[in-house]
Amino acid sequence: MREAQGFITLVCRGDRSTMSTAGKVIKCKAAVLWETNKPFSIEEVEVAPPRAHEVRIKMVATGICRSDDHVVSGHIVSPFPVILGHEAAGIVESIGEGVTSVKPGDKVIPLFIAQCGKCRRCKHQESNICMKNDLPSKYQGKLQDGTTRFTCRGKSIHHFMGTSTFSQYTVVDEISVAKIDAASPLEKVCLIGCGFSTGYGSAVKVAKVTQGSTCAVFGLGGVGLSVIIGCKAAGAARIIAVDINKDKFAKAREVGATECVNPQDYDKPIEEVLQEMSNGGVDFSFEVIGRLDTMASALLCCDKSFGVSVIVGVPPDSQILPVDPMLLLTGRTLKGAIFGGFKSKDSVPKLVTDFMAKKFPLDPLITNVLPLEKINEGFDLLRSGKSIRTILSF
Ligand code: NAD
Ligand code: ZN
């Protein structure tokens, strides 16, 4: 703390003539969630300067993901009060001591899955769950040094997954931010911060969808549609989109679904419908909703011998999915992944480069754009099934 203050004073003196905000507390607007099942409240918050190995970011755009709503509903447990938001893009305003990978003015994407690059899991080729992550089941709502940078009405406000992007300014650890192409459109590539990468990676990296295969995707939100984009990119021959909201089918077809089914149109369980449609079971299935019953259906609908089922949806806090081991004994694989299995700091800049090279689209995922002040309207659109992604602009 003492060390950081020294640094702050120095930067303040150096920048006084340019009216820089570096080293100063910034007062700005943020959407604060004071308790579960309540609307967000637009408040003036104080954002402290970044300490050593931290970065303060001026937010430009942030998407609304179902995982944020899971905290509002209590499906994901997080300490309150909190500033949510984890799918965003912005510009570095200032950096703390020792930061080397970004500098003021850089375009960046905050990373809700950190990558320290040094721990046992970061060094493992297949893993993307850095040991420094603040993950579900034990969210602390703090930065790496165990404190917060937000204050509102005299109270300390928790961070969310190390990102907290529903704020005009946020502070993140250096291991939780990636520099991206200076030419990239932030109001689009913000989706690479969560929904797009999670879905796309679940198909191409986690399931490793194969050419000519049959896939079933349960849930056609921003993440599920991105799974479809990934299945298509991997060369799947059939992509069966499953949702109880038929209004989602047109968009699913637009991004690559070959068939769409609504479980409510059938008298029998959806897994049986899908088994019949695929001559015994699909090659790859994805649960992209966050419900135990659809996780079971997704597992059951894949082939009992070579089927691979991937859990992408976040399950409700502390609930158990009972699985008959016989379902796996015959050879099925059940797996799951956060952020599509991508190592965040390494992969996010590459995904942005791929987007700039037109290797995949993001436009179909963006249905609404609203100012931060209308965040509650944005969440209502998600809850009523009327939006895919709403982008909040600052
Ligand atoms: P979303 O709410 O936009 O989409 C969910 C879709 O599921 C909706 O279209 C809805 O109509 C459909 N649905 C709801 N109940 C259904 C049912 N019983 N049967 C069939 N369809 C049903 O959500 P999203 O933002 O796309 O996120 C999807 C899930 O992925 C959420 O649980 C979210 O928390 C999770 N998620 C996980 C990660 C990760 O890293 N694994 C990252 C982001 C989001
Ligand atoms: Zn998300």
From TrEMBL:
Reactions this protein catalyses: a secondary alcohol + NAD(+) = a ketone + NADH + H(+); a primary alcohol + NAD(+) = an aldehyde + NADH + H(+)
Coiled-coil segments: none
Keywords for this protein: Acetylation, Cytoplasm, Metal-binding, NAD, Oxidoreductase, Zinc
Molecular function GO terms recorded: all-trans-retinol dehydrogenase (NAD+) activity; zinc ion binding
Enoyl reductase (ER) domain boundaries: 35-392
Superkingdom of origin organism: Eukaryota
Gene Ontology BP annotations: retinoic acid metabolic process; retinol metabolic process
E.C. code: 1.1.1.1
Gene Ontology CC: cytosol
Cofactor: Zn(2+)
Main location: cytoplasm
Family annotation (InterPro entries): ADH-like_C, ADH-like_N, ADH_Zn_CS, ER, GroES-like_sf, NAD(P)-bd_dom_sf
Membrane in keyword set: no
Cell compartments where the protein resides: Cytoplasm
Record family assignment: Belongs to the zinc-containing alcohol dehydrogenase family. Class-I subfamily.
Protein's UniProt name: Alcohol dehydrogenase 1
Gene name as annotated: LOC101593148
